[in-house]
Write a structure and sequence with these properties.
The protein is about 45% helix and about 20% strand. It has about 450 residues and is an alpha/beta fold. It folds into 2 domains: about 110 residues, Arc Repressor Mutant, subunit A (Orthogonal Bundle); about 280 residues, Alpha-Beta Barrel (TIM Barrel). The strands form 4 sheets. It has a 9-stranded mixed β-sheet with strand order 10-11-9-8-7-6-5-2-12. A 4-stranded antiparallel β-sheet has the order 1-15-14-13, with helices on one face. Strand 17 and strand 18 form a beta hairpin. The radius of gyration is 22 Å and the shape is globular. The structure holds S-adenosylmethionine (SAM) and iron/sulfur cluster (SF4).
């Protein structure tokens, strides 16, 4: 019996579910029971997957990781290495070896890639020449669809016209800049480089090139970021002219520099969950008032120039080929995270090995888990799609969960659809995790019924 009164699954019954349905955002979890590949078999299993030519290929993406930043931002958990020219150059050399080796595999050549993402860290810390070489190498060695989206992530600091033009010449056609906040006090406290007015002006210049979509990330909940400052940040997005924006709530993890600074009294507390919920509400209202097109719970576009192909594909059933230290991906049912340690990465590449210390074989039902995560990210679960994946009426079996959510103000039920309310959108990751857990419990229950029978 599943307890549909369990607040961890269905949330609190409260007049204010946006702020109080759950205590805090659940950590994303892969769901399903994937099995580790025994370490001695990691190399051969991956080689076998990359040697094979799939008869049918779904969407595929390429992810390349650049693990350097000039300065570590206080709130960030992605920081790996401080940018140093020698280290970046050595890394770039190894990266190009891995890129060409992976490009030559039969699996890679079997079908075109729809989206490429160069993420970090701060990929815009590569030199102008490296950006051009990287872009050209991707075009020269990988099969790409004619409308392939090639995103370069980074920040505007030291991203001059030379780098922008070089990246365009390399074939990058989408640029994603972390802004976080346009407020100079918030920025300095977070150790962001450049003041807010410099950032707005630079984004306006990049947009005025009229060469590619320019999208930005904003964070809400940072120390010193009051509701008024958040309102100005949202207005800053409009003023910048950027083609799209992601609004992310700050995830405050143990071990972040920000956390220590708060404990030492050097920074005020970041926003609590109810305040972040209010900030999210303001963000959603602001985007609606200004007729921004919503692409997901957290992402909006100004116009059709922003397509956000990588984000939507990588969150669904697309396969993602990873390249670089700290890159993660999944190919042929194998999920892997490449080593984050620079020395190990370079040693593996020099030894003609895959830099993969650990790999998992995807659990059966991986497609279902991916659909659930993608559906909640978009804000709607569709009965037809869900039931088609599992070939049974799972939507019907989940109805008690959906009804409990509806009672608690998290979703709205209509024929064949579960649509997230504003509160549900704020808690979308928590709801996705709750649904994945419930499916697991339903499956366990029906397995024990079979055994009992
Ligand atoms: C890993 S960063 C890379 C982009 C670039 N280096 C930059 O300076 O923003 C990508 C995005 O992760 C988000 N991010 C980083 N730390 C976060 C945190 N603690 N909570 C929520 N989002 C975070 C930020 O919005 C950032 O733009
Ligand atoms: S936000 Fe970007 S620049 Fe700052 S530490 Fe994280 S990855 Fe590096």
């Amino acid at each position: 019996m599943i307890d549909f009164n369990n607040v961890e699954l269905v949330g609190q019954s409260t007049p204010d579910p946006l702020r109080y349905a759950f205590a805090r955002k659940a950590a994303p979890h892969s769901g399903g029971k994937s099995a580790p590949v025994p370490p001695p078999q990691v190399q051969s299993a991956l080689q076998m997957a990359l040697d094979s030519v799939p008869t049918q290929s779904g969407a595929r993406c390429l992810y390349i990781h650049i693990p350097f930043c000039r300065v570590r931002c206080t709130y960030c958990n992605f920081f790996q290495y401080a940018s140093s020219k020698t280290m970046i150059d050595d890394y770039f050399t190894a990266l190009m070896v891995e890129l060409k080796r992976k490009a030559a595999q039969p699996w890679t050549q079997a079908a075109p890639f729809q989206a490429v993402y160069i993420g970090g860290g701060t990929p815009t810390d590569l030199s102008a020449e490296q950006l051009r070489i990287l872009g050209r190498a991707i075009h020269d060695h990988f099969p790409l669809t004619p409308d392939c989206e090639l995103t370069l992530e980074g920040r505007i600091n030291k991203f001059g016209n030379d780098k922008f033009e070089s990246a365009l010449a390399g074939g990058f056609n989408r640029f994603s800049f972390g802004v976080q906040s346009f407020d100079s006090k918030v920025r300095r406290a977070a150790k962001r480089l450049d003041d807010g007015d410099v950032v707005i002006k630079r984004i306006q210049e990049l947009v005025a090139y009229n060469s590619a979509p320019i999208v930005i990330d904003l964070l809400f909940g940072l120390p010193y970021q009051t509701l008024d400052i958040w309102q100005s940040d949202l207005e800053g997005y409009l003023a910048s002219g950027a083609h799209g924006v992601d609004l992310y709530q700050l995830i405050d993890m143990q071990g972040l520099p920000m956390h220590r600074m708060v404990e030492q009294g050097k920074l005020p507390m970041p926003a609590d969950t109810p305040t972040k919920a209010t900030m999210f509400e303001r963000g959603v209202q602001f985007m609606a008032t200004h007729h921004q097109r919503r692409l997901s719970c957290n992402h909006w576009a100004k116009d059709n120039r922003e397509r956000s192909i990588y984000n939507s594909l990588a969150k669904t059933t697309a396969e993602v080929l990873p390249i670089g230290a700290g890159a993660g991906g999944n190919v042929g049912g194998l999920q892997m995270m490449q080593t984050r340690k620079m020395e190990d990465y370079i040693a593996a590449i020099n030894a003609d090995q895959y830099p993969v210390p650990m790999m998992m074989r995807a659990a059966p039902g991986g497609e279902l888990t991916s659909y659930v995560k993608a559906a909640f990210d978009r804000g709607v679960v569709a009965k037809r799609t869900l039931n088609l994946i599992v070939n049974e009426d799972l939507f019907g079996r989940l109805m008690p969960l959906f009804q409990a959510w509806e009672k608690n103000g998290l979703v709205k039920l209509t024929e064949g659809y579960v649509t997230l309310t504003l509160a549900g959108q704020f808690w979308n990751v928590t709801l996705a995790q709750a649904m994945i857990r419930t499916i697991g419990m339903l499956n366990d229950a029906s397995q024990s019924d079979h055994v009992a029978a």
